[in-house]
Amino acid sequence: MTLLNAIDPWLAGPRSAELLFPTLALPVLGLLLAPLLGARWARLLALASLVVGLVLALACTAALVAADAPLVYALGGWAAPLGVELRLDGPAALMLLLTAVLLLLIGLHAAGEFSVRAAGRRATLAFWTLLLGVWAGLDGLFLGRDLFNLYVAIEVLTFSAVPMVCLKGHAAQFQAAFQYLLFALLGSALYLLGAGLMLGVHGTLDIAQIRVALDAVATHPPDIGGDARAATLAAVALMSTGLLAKTALMPLHLWLPPAHGGAPAPASAVLSALVVKGSFFLLFRLWLDLVPDLPQLHVGLLLGGLGVFAILLGNLMALMQARLKLLVAYSTLAQIGYLFLLFPLASGASGGPAATAALIQVVSHALAKASLFLLAGRILVAFGHDRLPALDGFGRAMPATLLVILMAGLALVGLPPSGGYLVKSLYASAAADLGAWWWPPALELGGLLSAAYLARILSIALSPAPASGTGTGAAAGGGHILRAPITGLAAPALLAVCALLLGLLPPALFSVMDVARPGMGSATAVAGVMLSALTPSGFWRSAGPVLTVALVVVLFHSAGESAWGRRIASIGRGVAGFEGWLRQWRTAGALLLLFLLIQVWTSIG
Amino acid sequence: MNEAQLYGVCGAGLVGIGLYGAILGRSTLRRLLAFNLVGSGVFLIFGAIARRGGLAGGAQSDPVPQALVITGLVVAFAATALAVALLIRLATVAHEAASAAATPGSTDDPSTPATASQGRGERGPGHVGAGHS
Prior knowledge:
The structure holds two protein chains of two kinds. By secondary structure, chain A is mostly helical. Helices cover 75% and strands 1% of the residues of chain A. Chain A contains 25 helices and two strands. A two-stranded antiparallel ribbon of chain A has the order 1-2. In chain A, helix 15 (352-383) packs antiparallel against helix 17 and helix 19 (439-462) packs across helix 23 (536-559). The longest helix of chain A is centred in the N-terminal third of the chain and has 32 residues, at 171-202. Chain B has four helices and no strands. Classes of the chains: A mainly alpha, B mainly alpha. At the A-B interface, helix 6, helix 7, helix 10, helix 24 and helix 25 of A face helix 1, helix 2 and helix 3 of B.
């Protein structure tokens, strides 16, 4: 009791906002200390501070719920705009929790792979320091309210994420890392230009103060306020374009497949689950919190259209990949597309059910994708490669791994009660409210394509190994499989189960993300969606098509060569050629500028 | 046109030249330098905004954008250093791989990502040779 009494002022009392300072300071301190302590202690330091960070994130969330209002902490007592203010609202608390949980689980999973004995001093120290750096950047992004501080946070995030790609030191990894860095830097230059324009227009960079100024402009006669409004929207368009490049929304994704496909598995998990979400969260803040009237702007159509493009092309490309890690990376590109349906479907002051859907998608995809990348790493260790055509029958050798892959995959496909199902149905209800019937079919189609690549993995995993022992695949023969310890399955399994059962959480828990966002109503929206999901007819309505597609793919795969197969393969080569063209540097650069112009035009015009 | 506007236009011009170079540049090093040009243009625009804000407030210049430029310079410096370090490592590794390939009996590393196989037009950052020749 005395302990509870002692910490009460922080959890429910007047001092609760002070929790935000250690939440940000802890990863930064760890980042600074890790290189001083050296490779041997960096792992312990990172894991210990992640445990403390998880406790802090839980305490922050508890304090936020108790206060039922945003927590605001001014560093050093200096208020905005000159000082740096940390502000925690519902979505930020959700992201803090997600980051702490995921980094801790991935860290525990990687503790064996990245130890001095297994990976050498250099890679060990680099991995744990960079992990702390990613954490510091993400926490800065979630807590910041000042556009320039957010810029610094996102650069910390990028600079920590880029070297993670090339931890193993292969030439292709360095190339991928350089391409990632240079494209991200172009994005940050555009972002910084936008922030500068914003400062010139409003004289402040604080998101809340700019919002107040914009609301005041709206009451002016149009000939006075119009210029400030247009300049603000141009600045937001610049920042938004920069962030699109960093989020790798297709077709601005040239850096993501080589970077996420080539990094070591735990690093890929961090990059795919969390790092791309950091820049998306900033887009969420910009278009929903800073711009007062997103639903009236046409820019949502552009972002949503690109999202649908990403869902379709990403899933198709995932279906055609020859390497498991690249398959998972392309599936990330498709799942990023789901996030962007938020923008055309947002309604009301705080986004409505579409905002709930986007935040749940961040959580659900992060859990499922971290699990999938860790499992891909497990297969890579066991077989020494991850080329799918040569993995025939790997499910017989590693049945538990296959089971967890299926669970995580089903969460991505969106079967009830997974997070993916919540996302699809919440978007569908948002679209029904707006009368925009054309968005949900794209989501359904995307889910079916995900089911197709999952079925492809399944049929490869269960197919009999080639009879002649050529030594290329022959997984079931078990000759040269490196047995991975079963404990390595704990973290991926936990993540996959969480993703798969996300919808069964009590709906009241989802109301955490509503704090300081009036009218979002996450709890009621989730409860309403789940009510119809668990009836037999509701379940079969989503599961039936998925099972059909899976069956077709399995049959197709087992049928072997056929005229149909050759025809489909030639179409596939065409799509892959188009996607390869999109991934050329010049195409991506030109598209970046094109999207900038369209965003400026659609938001001002 | 007052001086703040002049500097603003110059900054915009620098950003434009830099974007041209960064997107169309042939060698990786050239693209990196072009990015630095974009950064310089942005910082010049910040300077113009400082002057403009200062004149509006009755002072010589507004110190806030100037302070931001200093932070921005540090970030751009760190980014360039990281990119150059990556380029140097890339050149070293590529050089080693080339000399290893010259000796017979060396095999491909299985974990090397083979992205080139499914992206036909993909050339990667490539052309590192132009950077250090």
